UniProtKB/TrEMBL annotation:
Gene source species: Mycolicibacterium litorale
Pfam families (alphabetical): Na_H_Exchanger
Record flagged with keyword Disulfide bond: no
Name the record gives this protein: Sodium/hydrogen exchanger
GO cellular component: plasma membrane
Family matches, as InterPro entries: Cation/H_exchanger_TM (IPR006153)
Key words, A-Z: Antiport, Ion transport, Membrane, Transmembrane, Transmembrane helix, Transport
Length: 424
């Protein structure tokens, strides 16, 4: 007889109920998508609510299912695909239409924000090691527009602000992921890594291998697709399928040689987009965009379901203050300072800093950390992710349209005053 434990009826029922719920809600959202956009209700918002309902109905059985090795591997694959999608979704060239501002955001403001979050963690999250706090900082800093995607289409927001936000959202999670893995290895008590130097000795070769794999896979597939397209060997469907296979191939090959699969998928996306010559790259990206969207929907549902179990024992006031700081000053200050010297005005710099929702990347990073850490560290990470993402959905969902309206009204008033001056 097999030693495998028989499936538990309660867990099977919870999984089936979850499947029915997420499918029904997704179908309902699809039917009413345009109407919900007018109501400023995005798919992640609706899916999170469904997850919360299922979490209440199934107690903590869904949360127990997610805290497994299988869930961790699924989250890794989801993150690899999302990193690839983000890297290929940047418009207007490699760094968009505002390359100077984009570089400032990614390589000045982003590191300063992580450092600031780490300092707030030392103050407000006592009892956690600096490695765990660095993990948390990497979770709360990257932005993602899935909860409030309408921001990037709101014409009241200046085009250059939307462009630099699009570039940041495309690249920041890929830039942060190596640091996140480094911190997670250092914070994991089950590994034999005891010092930052030992963690770097493991992380640097992994990153180097990943970069080589990402460059190779991205370049090879892009050049092969270009040659095949010239000869008429590809169909519309096959052009889309290449973009689905690319991140999985880069991720898998990188892991096979003990590389960092996240870095590999991210680099693959950048190289593929840069080298691919397509008549309509946006159309080619539709399938992988949809795949990424569906995977993200699953993560948002899981997030809503686990939020119930995580919050049921209460939240320390220090954690609440930390999350509020992470959503506001941790980002706004470094971004506003980092853009000094660019052609962004002070109101525009504040707008870039204020429009920074947290979403799928924070959830996936959080799930990975939740499955690796133990005890109080696991609890702290879970609370931070839930409060930060839910807080962002509420805060940015409400304030982003108001900020856009205020900015547009202010600019309109300034122009009226300028034209009303004598001699104009």
């Amino acid at each position: 007889m097999s030693g495998r434990e028989p499936p538990q009826p309660g867990k099977i029922a919870a999984v089936l109920l979850s499947l029915v719920a997420v499918s029904a809600v997704l179908a309902g959202w699809a039917v009413l998508a345009r109407r919900m956009e007018l109501w400023r209700l995005t798919a992640p918002m609706v899916i999170v609510l469904a997850g919360v309902v299922i979490g209440l109905a199934t107690s903590d059985r869904v949360a127990d299912t997610l805290n497994t090795e299988i869930a961790e591997h699924v989250a890794e694959i989801i993150l690899a695909i999302l990193l690839f999608v983000d890297a290929t979704d940047v418009r207007g060239g490699l760094l968009g239409h505002e390359p100077k501002a984009a570089l400032r955001i990614l390589f000045v403001a982003l590191p300063v924000s992580i450092g600031t979050a780490l300092l707030f963690g030392l103050w407000l999250l006592p009892g956690s090691s600096w490695a765990v706090l660095l993990v948390i900082a990497c979770i709360v800093v990257p932005i993602d527009f899935a909860p409030v995607s309408s921001i990037l289409r709101d014409r009241r927001v200046p085009e250059r602000v939307r462009n630099v936000l699009n570039v940041e959202a495309g690249y920041n999670d890929g830039i942060v992921s190596p640091l996140f893995i480094f911190a997670l290895v250092l914070a994991d008590q089950d590994t034999r890594v005891d010092t930052p130097l030992q963690a770097l000795e493991a992380a640097v070769p992994q990153a180097a291998k990943a970069i080589v794999i990402g460059l190779t896979v991205g370049a090879a597939l892009a050049l092969a697709a270009n040659a095949a397209q010239t000869r008429g060997w590809m169909t519309i469907q096959s052009k889309r399928l290449v973009l689905v296979a690319a991140p999985l191939l880069a991720f898998g090959l990188s892991l096979a040689i003990d590389g960092n699969g996240f870095v590999s998928a991210f680099v693959c996306g950048i190289v593929f987009k840069y080298l691919r010559h397509s008549d309509d790259i946006r159309r080619d990206l539709e399938l992988v965009d949809d795949v990424g969207f569906l995977l993200a929907v699953g993560m948002w549902f899981a997030f809503g379901a686990t939020a119930v179990a995580i919050l049921e024992d209460g939240v320390p006031i220090g954690t609440v203050v930390f999350c509020l700081a992470a959503l506001t000053v941790v980002r706004i200050g470094p971004v506003a300072a980092g853009l000094i010297g660019t052609r962004f005005s002070l109101p525009e710099r504040l707008l870039v800093g204020g429009l920074g929702p947290r979403g799928t990347t924070s959830i996936v990073f959080g799930l990975l950390a939740f499955n690796v850490l133990d005890g109080s560290d696991e609890t702290t990470v879970g609370l931070v992710v839930v409060l930060c993402v839910l807080g962002s959905v509420i805060l940015h969902g409400v304030t982003a349209p108001a900020a856009a309206h205020t900015y547009a009204a202010r600019e309109g008033s300034s122009r009226d005053e300028e034209h009303s001056r004598p001699g104009k």
